[in-house]
Every structure is written in structure tokens, then in C-alpha cells.
Amino acid sequence: MGEDNDLILPLKEWVDLSKLAEEQQQSSLPSPENIRNAQMDYIARAVVVAAVVLDKLLILEENNYNWCPQDISIDNVHLEMGAGDVTMLRQRNTTINLSSLQGIQGVKLSIPQNHTSNGGVSPDEIFKKVGLILYSLFTRGEVPPSAGVEAENNTVEEAMLNARGRIKRRGDELDDSSHDESDSYEEQAGPNKGRQKVSVQEATKTFRRMNISNVEDALRQKGVSSSLCRLIVDLIIAPEEKDTKFQSLSDAVAELQQIMRRPDACFGRDTDSNNSTTDLLSLQFGDGIVGRTEEVGTLLEASARAQMDTESSHICLIGGTAGVGKSYLVESVKDALTSNGWIYLSCKFDRLMRNQPLVTIASAMEIFVQQLINVRGLPDGFDVDAVIATIEQSLSASGIVVLSDLVPSLRVLYRSVFAHVIMDDSEDDLNYVVAEATPDEDDGDEMGISSANTLRNRLHYLFGRLVEAISSVEHPIFLFLDDMQWADASSLELLLSLLVSGDHDDDNTQCLLVAGAFRSNEVDEAHMLSRYIQKFEEAMSVNVTSIQLDVITKSATHILTSEALLLPLRLTRGLADVVHSKSLGNPLFAKSLLRQLVDENILRYSLPKKRWVWDINDVKSVSVDDNVAELMKHKLLRLPNEIQDALKLISCFGTKVSKDIVSKLRSSSENSDDAITTFLEQAREEHILDHNDQVYKFAHDMLQQSAYDLMSPEEKGAYHFNIGLRLMSSVSTEASYDALIFTVIDQINNAKRYGVTEASMNISCAKMNLQAGKRSMEVSDFVSAWQYVVYGISFLPEAKWESSTYELTLSLHEAGALACFVNVDSTNLQINLGEIFENAVRFEDKIKAYYILAQNLASLNRLKEAMTTVLFVLNELGEDFPEEVSPEDVQTAMMSTQRLLDGYSKEDIVGVPRLKDEKKQWAVKLMDFLTPCAFMMSPRLLPILANHMINILVKDGACKESAFGLSNYSLCLITLRHDYEAGYSYGKMAIALLESFGAMGSLQKVKCMLQNMVNYLFEPIQSTANVLLESYEGLRATGDNEFACLALSMYSDQLIMSGCLLPVVEKKCEEFALRSMRLHQLQYCRNLCCTHNRVLSLTGNAEGKNPFDLLRDNDIATEDDLLQESLSTGRSGLSQQIYFSRMFTSFWLKKYNKAAEFAAQFRNAGRISMRFIDIYCTFYEGLAVFHLARCSTDKVIKSKWMDIGEKSVDRFKVWQEHSS
């Protein structure tokens, strides 16, 4: 051959060597299992060789090679091996090196030079030659049985004569059950009467079956699987049916590739060995995914990006119609992800279970926490102890307690935290706990009015911290949200917060990829999900990947059908064409149709033929429904009535239901629990349900929908009501009270939706809806809360304001008003408030409604109306305020407050008894609300508000809002009397009082204000700056995003003055501005952009970056644009921030004239008080003007600069007296 013998190995020699390796492996441990494993290892090597050989032959065929019969022979096939492999393999005195056997790099054909093509070589003859090569390869070098040789060398008649004796011996083994291939016989006359005469046609069939059987037997004895046997046999002996013959070598290549792709079909248990009849009669759809190679690649690419880019958030949105395979696509990458360290979490939204607040996303976290507890189901190398410690450190005790309402297993994981929680049974609030674990909680009645948004923000922040604590680059989180078209608003808000509002920095790394699947044909522009998708796409920090799944191609349907039947593509081509046509390429439809064909016995498994068989005309005649839902509905209707009833029952819960709940139920026919379980198990065998140790789950939500739609509206109502009624008795004794009460009330409400109620239960149902509504608010789900309130009101009698239902009616409308306020539903807000104002008997019963009204007016920037409303209520409560506040009123209030607090120490303030009078509590709460409004609209009112609040504190008792009266008075002392030491002292009192209440949110807010207005005069800047950063974390944890971003803005200003390196400050400012934008705090984002711009100017990087690009506002592209807007809208604080930045930059760039000019503009833009920024502006202005005065030769100009400088010195002397 002229080839390098060290690189070329004849195929025959490779077979001998590989056989020797098999024998060596078997002899090393002569157990049946090891012998079988060695056999399968040989076959695995042979499959790879077969693939390489077929590929080479296919190339020749595609290049129109003129075949000669002698060309295609195992003698002419040589394998190209790696360097040194051939030499190593030929060292027979050693153990065969398996890696050398597998080092095949190509194939060469040695074509005999004395053979030339004579033309006219038939494809069947080429296929036979190829089949013989494969036969020899898989039988370890053997030649086919004698019948096969005869078939190759003799005519049919000659072969038939030689086979007559064998026919008689093997007659009992023939396929007598196949009527379409049965033999016909005739009796002979004469001396041979009674002998069977076999016609040429029948003998040919008989001989053919014998020939096939002999070849199959020989292959099977060598451990070759059914699929490989069929490939080799059909190459050697061409099938009789035209549609199942090989058309080209490409068919053989495709079939071998299919076998290699499905090793379960190739190397798994054959259909004739050790399989139960049930397995044989079941379609094998497997776990693989068909026709989605590109989409799988896109999803894996998105996961790779998410793992590398932790500075951004990542979401992959997967759209498509029902049954197109969205869930299947995501689940197909699960193994690949988890094997690479990913934490795979999934949950599914449900059209019937949409009211339970945040239960869907929380369920994914609940499963993960259970995995932590049980230490199973986690990726390799996952440090459980480290993650548990990180979660506790990140969330703190209070955060763990808050999240435990949604993730109950946290109570088990952190028993020590809950051991310190004290339950107060005297409160009605379901979640009222006292101690440091739940700081700053209002009581059940006032819950959420003053902090509805902070409740939501806090929960979002804690979920984000939980994700950060769990995830890492080594173990990222993959969160799959299925059926997002049914997602509730609260869940979408939480998802938006996780993606947009996270703190992506070195200390807070969130490595998360969200995959969301939804029915795109059900989500139009008006759909709620569309609005959130738009928000994802517009967010700068979110990387969005979109995948749109259409129907699968005809070739994909061919593969799906082929693999379901464990038959090669060429045998199922005709069936697959019909399936694709009828299913329109919908994978779920196609699978359901194949199951329907099995159910109707059109597609059946033939034991004699060891394969599925069908009549294509019968398949074509099957009528199918227009959609998947109808097809599945008809499938369910074919089930026994008892199974249908059981499926109807659990369909009322949505796509899944816990086994614990099922155990509490009886079906409408009063079957026992065991009977229900039996019927559900039968449904599982019909591939309608899946289940594990905890839940029953419909295999697809379309099956749940079909089972639910088996019932009429009346039946649905009856089922829902019966379920709710039977579960209601378990509520009082059930440990997981919250989850069960939602289940019960959802069933009762669904029954009412279908017109089924029980008058005697209406009041109980109204109370349960109120309870569910309040519980929803506690986890910041105000959308669900409103829905529960609406149902609760609907259960009330017509005369609902009468005494027997008065309190319940009032509570429902108060809860409804609060929910509508948070949901920005002004129409229903006014309706609920109107009901209260018109029907409430006592003024005290209207206070909460007035409070909500004032909150709503303030949110609409109607501050004057909000103040008028609150002042009216305060006057009704006995707290009189002047209509117009004069300077004398201010002085009188300041003196009165001074007398009230005279002699009180910090310890005395903390020891004041708690305020019990409900009216006084409301008065202090309302004045606390009024304080920021007065700060903007009527500053003179501030000392009077402080006086009233401290008067109640001293005379009636303290509540947490009392601290704001002290802090308000502290600032009044500083700004009005310049009494910094007293102001500092009362600020400390305010902090001590809040600490005694454990009111962490209010505490951080007061600290934030005092650090910027007072404390920096008495404490080092480095200290106050760090406190501001701590305040940010504390305010985020309590949900006060507005004050949190204010703290960041203040911290950035102080950081520059504290001696921190400018490159560090630059990075921090950029990071903080982005955080503020993510938290929707535009005003503070603008401040931080100005600070960032100041630092860039000082470091010389201003030309390379534009911080104002972050604002994404076409009207504000530069700092000049922002200044003009702030001046035109009267935002003096922002104007002063810009002038200060310009003054500071000009000073350090030695542009002292500009620095003095900007300092003057700073003073003219707004008031000068004791803010941090005021003092430093005065300081740098003084330095700049004194320098200008020193350099000036003009006496008039010099005098002007000196006057300004002396005023700066005078102000500083006053401040210096109070600075330590």
C-alpha cells in the first residue's frame, strides 16, 4: 500500500486486537457482570469504528464513485491511527491499551488495482457489502451463517433447495402469528400424498425469515442490541417494503448516528430481554429534546454569560404556544447546568392559585432550604455550612424571621434565631412578634399605612440578599419560572427587584440567571407581563436573552416518532409524516396523538416481530381535534369515571396539590382516601400525573386545564365549595396555618365565582378573606390583598353597617382602601374611603381612612391638601394648630418645649412609660407624617409640631414616633438658636428612644439626618461617613429606599473630604449612582451623578466618561442641562449641589475666581444652615477669596474679597465652638 505501517491498521487486525482486549478484560474478573461490561465496551468501540467507516463510504458515494463489487470488503478497510498507537497495539505480550484502540483518526480504502467498475452495481448490492463489513466488525471477525452465504452466492431456487431440510427443522420457530406473511400450502397427489409442497414464493419468504433469524441470532450472541441488529440485517438483506429500504448510505449514517445519540436504545436492555410487558407496550419518549439544538445552545450561552458577568443581571425569556416544549427546553439543560455547579431552582405559576402571596417564587426557595437541611440535591463541592452561615450573616435575625413567613423551613434551619422570638398572644396580628427579630413593626391595625412601600421594599431587599448569600460564581442560581403569563403582579415586582435593584459590587455578588417561559400567544401588548418585559429590556443592568419557540420541523417529528418507537427513521418515515401533518408540528400534540393511536390499538407492539407495527391507512383515518386541549380532554373521557372524578378533584387546586391535602379529602362519591390514591396512581400510569413524596402534579398544565374543563360551571362551584368546606375543619389545628387558610379561602372564593355559597357561612368567609388580605399585606402583596377584600365584602349582608357586622365591614373597607392606595387604584380607593366617611359611627373609626387619604394626597404631590386633612384630624383629636404660624408662635413653641424637657436626661426619656391612649397614638403618628410636608411647605410649623409631640411624650407616654419629635426639636435648636450642643444632645436622646423600641427603620432614618446635620461637628468625618454607609444597609433592610439613597449621597460627599483616594471615590460614586437608579430614586441619582462628575474632573477623566448618561434623559445630557432644569423647577438643593461641585473643583484646579463665583451662586440658590455641604462651601469660599484678596492690587476688589472672607470666618467661629 505504500503507507506508513506505524499509522495504518487494517480493520481486520483492529477487530482481532479489540477482541483480545475484550478477552483480557473478561479474564481479569470472570464475573457475569464484568463479562457483560467487557462485551458492551467492545460494542461501544465498534460503533465508533462503524461510524467512521460509514462516513468514509458516504463521501465516496456523494462524489459519484464508480463502485466495483470487490471494492467494498473488510479486507480493503484500513484505519488511520495516532502516532505510536499501531506499534503499541502490536505488542501482543502486553495488555492491550484501550486508548490506543480508540485513537482512530480516519479511514483509508485499499482499492485492488486489478478491479475496475463494470458499471451497474445495484444499491442493494452496495448495502449488502457494507452490512457484511459491519457484521464482521460486531461479531469479532466472524462470517455470516451459511444461509447468508448461500443468499450471496446462489440463486433463490438453489438456496431454497439447500434449505428445505432446515425449513422443516425450524418450522416451529417461524412467525405463525403474522397472518399477512403466513405460508400457504397445497396437498400433493400420488405417492407423495400428504407431503407439503412449498411454492417458490412461499419458500422464498420462509428462507428469507430463516436467513434474517440466523444473522440476528449471531449478532445477539455477541451482545449487539436490537437497533444495531436491525441496521446490519437490513443492509445485508434488503427489506421487502419499499418505504423501509435504505435509499442511500446517508440513511445508514443517519441511523447509526441516531443509535449513538440514544445509547439507551443501543446499549440498554433490549425489548426481548428482562423487560416487563408494560415496558414493551409503552412509548419511549425519553428525556432528550428533539429539534431544539439552536435553542439549547442559546440557553447554555446565556448561562455562561451569567456566570462570567456578575455585574449585570440576566434573564432568558422563552415564548411559544402551549405544548411547543418551553418547559422541556429548560429541563433539558438541567443536568448540564447542575454538573457544572449550578443550583437549579424551579417553580410554576398557576391560573387557579394566583392569590396566595408570592407563594410561587417562595416555593423554589423553600425547596432549596429543605435541601440545605437534608444535605441532598445540591451540586458537588457545595459548602453547606458556609452558605448557612452566610445567609444568617446577610439577613440578620430580623430578616430571617420576615422571610420565614414565605420560606417556613428557615424556622428549622435557624432554630436558635427563633428561640429568642417572643410571641405576644394579646395581638390580633398573625405575624406580630416582639424583640429584635422583628424591629420597627407596626401593630396589626396600623400595619402598612405609613410603611406600605417600605414593607414591599424590605421584602424585595431580603430576597435579594438571600440570593446573594446562596449564589456564587462557582455555584450560580438558575431560577426557572414557568407559565409566566399567569404570574401575579407581586411576583413580577419581586422579580424586577431581583434583576434591577440588586447591589452588584465586590461585596454583594449576585450570580443569577432567571429563565421565564410564557405562552406568547396569550401575552399581547395590554398584558401585564408585557409591561414587565419592557422594563427588563429597558433596564441598563439587565441582560435579556429572548428565545421564541415555534413548532418543530418535519424532520424533528420524524426523530421524535422514531425514538418513541425505538425504530430507525426509515421505518417510521410514513407514520411520522402523518403525525406531523395532524399535529401541525406541536410536540405535545404529536406525543398525545401517538398515545391516542396506542390507546385505540392502531399503533401496537408485536411480540413476534419485536417492534411496533401499524397500518398507515388506519393512522390516516384517525380524526384529531383542532387543538391540544380538546385532544387531551377526549383522552380523559376515555378513562373510567372514578379516575375522572379524582382528576376533577385535584384539578381544582391547579397543576399540583400536596398529598397532605389529598389525605384530608373525600371524593364526591365518598370514596376513601385509599381509593382516591388508587385512582390517582392509575392516572399516573396513564401519563396524566407525576408525583413524588410530597405532591401530585399534572404532567402538563394542559392536562389540568382539560380535567378542570370536564366539569360544568355548576360542577366546578360544587367541587370548590366541597373542598373548602372539608378543609375548613383542619384550619384551627393545622401547623402550617397560613398556607392552609389560603387554600381554604381560595376554594370558597372560586365556588362563589361560580355562584355556589352557603348563607350560614358568609360571615365566616368574610372574616377569612379579611385575614387572608391582611396576611397578604404583611408580605407586601397588595394586589392579592385587594382581591381578598373584594371577596370578603361580597360575603357581607346588604345591611353590612349594622351593629352585628359593623367592625368587620369597617376593617374590610380600611384594608381595601390601603390596598388600593398602594396599588394606585384611585377609583376604588375613593369608593372605600367614601363608604367609611359616610357610614362610620365614631370619628375614631374614620382616622385611619383620613390617614390613608392624606398619604394618597401627598403621593400625588398635593401637599397642601394633605396638610389640611391632617390638621383637621389633629384638631378633632384636641391638638390645635394656628392657621397661620407667626414668629411669635415659633418662639412660644420653642420655649414651651424647653420647659417640658428641662431636667430630662437620656435615661429619663428612655424610661418614659409607653403611650397607651389610642387617640394620642394617632395624634403622634399624624404629626410624624406632617413633619416632612411642613419642612417643604411651611417650615415655621416644625417647632410647633415638635412641641406637640414632646408634650404628649412627657405627659402621656412614648411611642416610636415620639423620637421624631425629639430629632425635629434638635434640628430646630441648631437652625433657629444655633445651640449645637443642645441639638446634639437631643439627637442622641432620639436615637436612644428608638433603640429602646427596636425601631430599626426609624432609627436609621434619624441617624442619617443627624450625621449630616449635627454629628459631624462633634465626631471625625471618617466616623460619621461610616455611620452613613451603615445607615444605608439598615435602611435597605427595612425597605426605606428613599432615605437609603439619601444616605449614599451624603456618604459620597463626606467620603471625598475624609482623605479617601480619588480613584476609590470615583468607583464608589459610579456604583452608588447606579444603585439609586435601580431603586428608582432619581433625585439622589442626580446628586450622585454630580458628585461623580466632580471626582472625574479632579482625576482628569471627565472626557472619557459622562456620568449623566446613566439618567437616560435626552433633555439632560450634561451637568449644564441638569442645572438649568433644577433652576427652572425650583429644586434649590440640587442647584446648590451642582454649584458646590463646581466650586470645589475650581478651587483644587486653582481657578479661584471661578471658585468664588460658584460659592456666591451656592449661597444665592438656597438657604445656608448647618449641613455638611454648607460648612465646606463656606470653608473653601473663604480660602479662595483670601487668596484673591492677597493677589489683587485693586483696593476696591481687594476689600470685596476680604469682606466675603471675614463673613466666612465669622460663620466658622460659631461652628467651631461646637466642633470637637
Automatic annotation (TrEMBL):
Residues 290-500 form the Orc1-like AAA ATPase domain. Residues 170-182 have a biased composition (Basic and acidic residues). It comes from the Eukaryota. InterPro entries: AAA_16 (IPR041664), Hybrid_Histidine_Kinase (IPR053159), P-loop_NTPase (IPR027417). Residues 163-200 are annotated as: Disordered. PANTHER family: HYBRID SIGNAL TRANSDUCTION HISTIDINE KINASE G. This is AAA ATPase. It comes from Skeletonema marinoi. The lineage of its organism: Eukaryota, Sar, Stramenopiles, Ochrophyta, Bacillariophyta.
